[in-house]
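Late entry, evening session. Most of the bench is empty. Finally got around to the prediction I had been postponing all week. Sequence below, unchanged from the version circulated by S.P.
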Amino acid sequence: MVQDDPHGLIGDMVRLGVIDAVDLAAASCIVAVGDVRSPPLPWLELAGGFRTWVPPTVGEQVLLICPEGDIAHGVALRGLYSDAFPSPAGDATARILMPDGTTIDYDPEAHRLTISIAGGGLTIDAPEGVTIAGDVDVTGTVTASDDVVGGGISLKTHRHGNVQSGSSQTGSPV
């Protein structure tokens, strides 16, 4: 096919747009390019052995890639900062910012990972256990449904000998 207007063809193939609507069940979005609205289109996501699910947000700026200039077969390429959604960091820190304000930060200079949860909790489901190599500081209450063992001594079943009933106190742990 001979194209008389190669610049127009390139302009039809790659367009700046804004997410206008998102259909989570169909994993599709509608992109507004000026007054033109696309049909429901996929957005770019990791979709192989490693898969991600981070749906776009209405108002998010995207590149609409349209093979052969056909908007009906377009794909929304995400990742463009805008006034509506500016960069979440301005230094070497890697940051993931969630809509509720929760952040996951990694500072490569300090070698420090920080997770800050906005008004919620954290659940770790690890059937084979969790190993922490390093000191642990806990601010707040620690609750265990089974037992706590320190230095081989069970908090749940540990008993002290040579204790008299009444108001006597036990001695310090040995």
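Two things to note before I forget:
The radius of gyration is 28 Å.
The mean pLDDT is 90.
Will write this up properly tomorrow.
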